[in-house]
Each structure stands twice: as C-alpha cells, then as structure tokens.
Amino acid sequence: MILAAGTALLLVAVTLFGAAVLLPSAPDVPLDRRRPFDPEPPSSLTRVALSAVRSFERLLAGRSISLFGRPELENAGLRLSQAEFFLLVGIGAGVGMLVGTVTVGPLVGLLLALLAPFIGKLVLGFLAGKRQATFDSQLGDTLQLLSGGLRAGHSILRAIDAAAAESQKPTSEEMRRVITETSLGRDLLAALNDTADRMKNEDFIWISQAIQINREVGGNLADVLDQVNETIRERAEIKGHIKALAAEGKFSAYILIAMPFGIVAMLLAVSPNYMNSMFTHPLGWAMIGASFVLMTIGALWMRKIIDLKF
Fold this sequence. Notes:
Elements: H1 2-22, H2 44-61, H3 70-75, H4 82-103, H5 106-137, H6 139-151, H7 156-166, H8 171-183, H9 188-199, H10 202-217, H11 221-270, H12 276-280, H13 282-306
C-alpha cells in the first residue's frame, strides 16, 4: 500500500513537472487587455526542455505525421506545438512504464506505456468537446452582440470584430480567426462555415446561412439574427429538458459499468487471495475476456438508448 501511494505521488509530481516546463508561462490574459509581458530569463531546466522540443520538431519536420496535429491541438484550445505534445505523451509513457514496472511488473509497465498515446487522444477529445460545449453556450450572447453591432450601423465584419473583443473564450478566439482569415483575402462565408465545422455546431451553420441569404436577397440582417437567436434559445431549452430526462438513464449506465470493477477492487482489498484463481487459471482469463466483451456490448447498447438525437 505504501509503495502504491509513493508511485502515485511520483506520477503526479512528474506530470506537474512536465506541465510546468512545457506550458507557456505568460499570464492567461488577452494581449490587448494587459501591459506588455516581460518574461524572466529562462532557467537552465527550461533551456534543456526547449532544446528537447526543438530537436523533436526537427525530427518531425520531414515527416507527415497527422497524430496530434495542429488542428487537433487548436480544437482542444491548447497552445502547444505537435512536438511539445508528443514530448508530454512520451513523458507520460515513461512514467507509466516506471509505475507499472515498480508496482506490478514489466509487462504492465509496457502496457501502460503503450496506452499513453490513446490517453493523449482521449484528453484532446475531452478538451475539444468541452470547448465546443462552451462555444455553444455562448452562441446566444454572440448573436446579441452581432445584431447590436449591425443596429449601430456597423458592417458585418465590424460587428464580428466587436463580438470578438467583447466575448469570452473560445468565442473570442474563433471570431478573431474569422476576422484574420477575411483580412487575408478569404471569403467570409467560407471562414464562418469552417468555424461551424470546427466547432461541430449546427446552430452556427444557421448564422452563416442567414448571412449568405441576406447577401443575396438583402433585408435587415439584425432582425434575421434576432429570429435565429430566438430559435436557438428555444432549441437550447428543449436540449435542457432532454438532458434532464436522460440523466437518470446515464447515471444508471455509469453505475452498471463501474460496478464490476468496484466489486473486484473490493475483493482484492479485503481478501487478495480470493481472486488468485481468476488471474492464474486459463478459464479465469477466458471469463475475464468474455466479461469485457459483454460489458462493451452492454455499454454500447445503453449508450444507444440514452443518446437521443434531435
């Protein structure tokens, strides 16, 4: 027990060390809202980390590796390069191998090291989903800012620029990206459609279509955006009702999936020798494999039931 606690503390310490070295040290405040930031001279440890990152960037420069590419990192809201994230995953793999080897054995350590890229992929997916949900929750306020700017006499580009200045992340980042792309000569509708695809937001597609229709047939775009905003708010209210009704089913699914692991952990803690035959006999391994297959089928089945499309 003491050895397991020590290895867990070692894992946390190494993870925090890697994050402190590789993540940017500048304050998380927009540049136009703060004074120029004067960073302190890098320490020797930071210089070593930067040297490792540059070496890894040169290694990846001549290869087309799509894993942990820039689009994935941008969608997750991480200000890291592909080499920096690869280095973090490599550190995690090394720590996992060390912890698994010390606590159980080299085979488990190798398994944890191989799981590091998959965990990194899951982390990026989780962060991207959280960022998309935040963007969706800010969409109503964004539409109000756009319609207010249009009523004040601004053009659509100026209204988007004002919305970028007044909004919170990630809306401010996406709106600034639209302004930057259009200033470089890209069509506004193409930039808005890319934002909708990147955020996987159907409601934002309506905004792009409303702007496109207004360009073709004319009319009061502010009133159109207000109507779109009202429709989006009604859909958000329906989403809230559906999530509340499906919450009980989701909670039951989580409990049913976690129950076998909890029972096994309790048995190992109370009587470690009770489960020895399960892990040493071939029939036990076959039963474990069959249980994983059945649990996967059951989890997918329950997910299909409670994941409502509307």
